[in-house]
Amino acid sequence: MRCLLRITFIILLIGILSFLFVDFLFKTDFFSKYHIDTNIKYGIDSAKDQVKYNVLIEVQRYGMFGLEHSLGGGVLISTTGEVLTAKHILQNTFEIRVTLSNGRVFDINNVNDFYVDDKVDIGFINLHSSNLEYAEIADSNEIVKNAEVYSIGNPTELFVNKEFEGKIVNADFKRIFLGKDERHLLIDMRVFHGCSGGGIYSVDTNKLIGINSRAFENYAIAVSSEAILQAIDRFHNLQDD
Predict the structure, then answer these.
(1) Higher-pLDDT residue of 42, 226
(2) Backbone angles phi and psi of 237, in degrees to 5
(3) Beta-sheet strand order (sheet of 93-100)
(4) Is the per-residue pLDDT at 29 higher than 90?
(5) Is the domain covering 140-230 a CATH 3.40.50.300 domain?
(6) Between 149 and 157, whose confidence is greater?
(7) How far apart, in whole angstroms, are the C-alpha atoms of residue 88 and residue 4?
(8) CB 159, CB 37: distance < 8 Å
């Protein structure tokens, strides 16, 4: 009997401590140490214009080893504040902070305000704002082998804060490595931690041609604009239901 009471007491104690810990997490601002760097120098003149569409995304999630804090990039794609990013940034999150290039901050706690696609590495965040400038998405026929592109890393002082230049090596990478459900771009361009979810733009048109997904050796793998537009349709159809 004493053993049962002792076990019950321990379980209750663990429950109370867990509740207090979670309550503490939601009342604590873990995001305050990251600041937008407004003094970025860009080698490509057009990058100065495109950076206003880029956002910094910070998330809190429960990982295999407990609480995790991570960050990545995103791109504004509508005047009301729809943000494209990589799906793996948003998975298993319970709190999201989005910071625009002008320093404006949006805290996202409602699960209905973000969505991860079930087919490609694309996620969406809805800021419910207005009058925001946004990137133009390229048509699939604008993406060709050897096209020159650049990617802008998330605009923080501590992480990547400049553009990276490269060329499209393969505009249809799915047949080689990544399966049949999504069309990827293989780009001869090094990307680093913190670049996931950021936009990849055409040097010629400055349109968004992809979203950084992952690195593969010295290459960047990106979800192409063709797959992005399909994912956007799925996202909007879900909202209409």
Answers:
(1) 226
(2) -65, -40
(3) 105-108, 93-100, 54-63, 66-76, 82-85, 123-126, 114-116
(4) no
(5) no
(6) 149
(7) 43
(8) no
Quote the tokens at residue 172. 């249809």
d(CA 132, CA 52): 10
Predicted pLDDT at 16: 61
Domain coordinates in residue numbering, the chain = 47-134, 140-230
In CATH, what number does 47-134 get?
A: 2.40.10.120
Provide the strand spans (E) within the chain. 54-63, 66-76, 82-85, 93-100, 105-108, 114-116, 123-126, 148-152, 163-170, 184-187, 199-202, 208-216, 219-224
CA distance 151 to 218: 14
Q: Above 70 in pLDDT, residue 105?
A: yes
Tens-place pLDDT, residues 177-224:
444 455 688 888 877 766 788 888 888 888 998 898 887 777 888 888
The encoded tokens of residue 58 equal 């910070």
Q: What is the pTM of this model?
A: 0.76
Question: Do 47-134 and 140-230 fold alike per CATH?
Answer: yes
